[in-house]
Design a protein that fits this description.
The complex is a heterodimer. Chain A is α/β, with parallel strands linked by helices. Chain A has 17 helices and 16 strands. In chain A, helix 8 links the parallel strand 7 and strand 8. In chain A, helix 5 packs across helix 7. The longest helix of chain A has 18 residues. Chain A starts with a strand and ends with a helix. Chain B is mostly helical. Chain B has one domain: MetI-like (MetI-like fold). In chain B, helix 7 crosses helix 8 and helix 8 packs antiparallel against helix 10. Chain B is flat. The chains are: A alpha/beta, B mainly alpha. Chains A and B meet through helix 2 and helix 4 of A and helix 7 and helix 8 of B. Bound molecules: adenosine-5'-triphosphate and magnesium ion (MG). The site of adenosine-5'-triphosphate has 11 residues of chain A, from strand 2 and helix 1.
Amino acid sequence: MIEFRNVVKHYGGQTAVDSVSFSIARAEVCVLIGPSGCGKTTTLKLINRMLEPSSGEVLLDGYPVASFEPEELRRGIGYVIQSVGLFPHMSVAENVGIVPRLVKWERSRRERRTDELLDLIGLDPAQYRRKYPSELSGGEAQRVGVARALAADPPVLLMDEPFGAVDPLNRETLQLEFAALQRKLRKTVVFVTHDLDEAIRLADHVVIMREGRILQHDQPAQVLASPANEFVRQFVGVDRALKRLACFEVGDHMKRAETITREESRNRLNEPNGDGGYHPILWVTNRDQALVGMLEPELNRRSPLAYRPYVELHPAEVGVRPAASLREALSRILGQGLRAVPVINDEGRVLGEVRLSDIEELNQTGITR
Amino acid sequence: MKRIGAFVLPVLLVAGFSVFVWSEGVRELVLRSMFPGRISYIYERVTLARLLSQHVALVAVSSGLAAAVGVALGVFVTRPIGRDFHPIVQDISSVAQTFPPVAVLALAVPAIGFGFAPSIVALFVYSILPVINNTISGLDSVDPAVIEASRGMGMKRGQILWLTELPLAARVIFAGIRTSLVINIGTATVGAVVGAGGLGTVIVSGLVRDNSAYVFTGAATAAFLAFGLDFVIGRIQNRLYDARSD
Ligand SMILES: Nc1ncnc2c1ncn2[C@@H]1O[C@H](COP(=O)(O)OP(=O)(O)OP(=O)(O)O)[C@@H](O)[C@H]1O
Ligand SMILES: [Mg+2]
């Protein structure tokens, strides 16, 4: 979808982008990351011709971007600007509707689209349509910036630190919202950040840059597992193993869980320890099959019984959702002091379990020292 | 209560002003009570209403031209093609503004001659300066990030000017036009000296004949015109910018 071929960009004597080649597939989120001044914004602006390369070329759908009229090109590419960049003299609706206005949609169609987008980003149109950017919170302004970029439904989205200006808590909310939105919209997204956790959370591929060069271009889990060089290793940090767990979804790594009813649990309580073979945690469910408690295996070999007495559980505290990350599952496992935690759905039904041993195994197979 | 007052007061003032201008009987009564013991209170050669309309014509034409040409010039020197003229135009317009208006007019007479048209030219030259000045500083003060955003959304040069720069600079540009208008209303009274008519005629006549009632008539009318117009433009400005708290 987007391809860089030996792209170089000089500013005067300084080289901001140094012979960069890489490509981004359709519907993928590619995150450019690196220290300040490494050329991320410059790289992004070369795509929609806000900047022209000193040499090399950028292709969009196989055509050099230089072959398009710059304004036409930009109207077809959504752009979320570093530090928001909303028009202060235009209302929220006018801001969101600017590209449709430039490509001459009728007013009624524009208004419908604006409302639709405000709904999509979780701002009530009736309440926000008429507001001006100065009346928005940082998070709301960022959302409007995203809506504006999506307005004419462009296949490609360029996002330059779109959530940079909000506090960490709000940023996480925005990231999760964006991830959900992207699952629906499936745009080709080039996303700039210098927040590694954000990159891990959102990226299909990350491009790690330094001084205008690409150091590594790979899936986030792969970058964390085997950093290409010392700089990347330092950049991703000593806790990369833990960060890497954030790349995996619980749903992909859960195992079958054993569930029993409260009545059955009474029988199992008398089960003898026997030969000390493997005893799974027994998740106890009620008549609606919702998780209510568990029987935990006895670890003390000399105990005559296989299971400890029944323990009541709060599903919200113990259970993880299939969409959660293994990192979250691990933190539950450690928090509860268990060997596994149940995977539950919205109704509290047990879908499976995530085991500490599986996480350990996954960790060992991927990581290079 | 306050709102009613805000509405009633201007209406009363305008009504009083109209009566003063159009009814010579009332005017004579007012002036007689202010300046007792004169021979004449009413300028007899031309009606005050006619002088007022001449005055308004002088101001409207010269200020209209100044606004149009001034904004255009300000836009020109902030475009890439006009950039070279930016410093010259800005210097000239800020220096020229320090000349007293009367001096400008006095210099214009030997150059252009007497009458309505030369007065227009002189008034135009003087009142264009605040417009140019404010247009330039208004456009220069637009946040480059917003212009960058406009470019990023796919606006062409002209669209950036119309949809982003001018609206954002409008407040400052309007302030320039407002200043130029108010200055022009005052300066136009001096136009009488060069035979352009207007409210200055009755003032000059009063000065020559040592008749303070005449001088007051012209000065008060011009002053009211200036205040009134300034008030109205201020209102329009507020109306335009009330909604956005930028
Ligand atoms: N218009 C410009 N003129 C000259 N140098 C520039 C210009 N824009 C960027 N640079 C330089 O090019 C380099 C790359 O800049 P760029 O904006 O792409 O960095 P970045 O990775 O986006 O940084 P940040 O994370 O701080 O936004 C920097 O060293 C910067 O100083
Ligand atoms: Mg940047």
